Amino acid sequence: MPHPIMFTDDDPILAKVREFALALPDATEVIAHGRPTFRCGKMFGNYGGSVKGGVRHEQSLLFIPDPTEREALIGDQRFYIPAYFGPAGWLGILLDDDTDWTEVAELLDASFRQVAPKRSIAKLDAAGQ
Prior knowledge:
With 129 residues, this protein is of the alpha+beta class. It has one domain (12-117): Alpha-Beta Complex (Aspartate Aminotransferase, domain 1), CATH 3.90.1150.30. It is 30% helix and 26% strand. It has a six-stranded antiparallel β-sheet with strand order 1-2-3-4-6-5. Helix 1 crosses helix 3 (101-115). The longest helix has 15 residues, at 101-115. InterPro entries: YjbR-like_sf, YjbR/MT2646/Rv2570-like.
């Protein structure tokens, strides 16, 4: 039995996440477990998540933080440790109309760089992004 879809395509926050995630070289979107995921070989972003125990954050982005920044991000109330992904080092950021999209782009860039093949990272660097 497939997972139910847990997003709507007309969500303006999702549209912004897609804009930044799919601008990365060789990035694709795949629906997995009912949610949009962003991949370049491996997954580097997931739209929507929850905290262990059931609190769902439909408008959030799960990502792999730069290891040197993880602890500082955890101290910010906009970030949370997501269920399932948290033990692997992932974090979630809550998104809303006041979101700093430059920051989101930087978080996606850092996450992408940790999983993308070297050729895709080289394309990103060549583009000056």
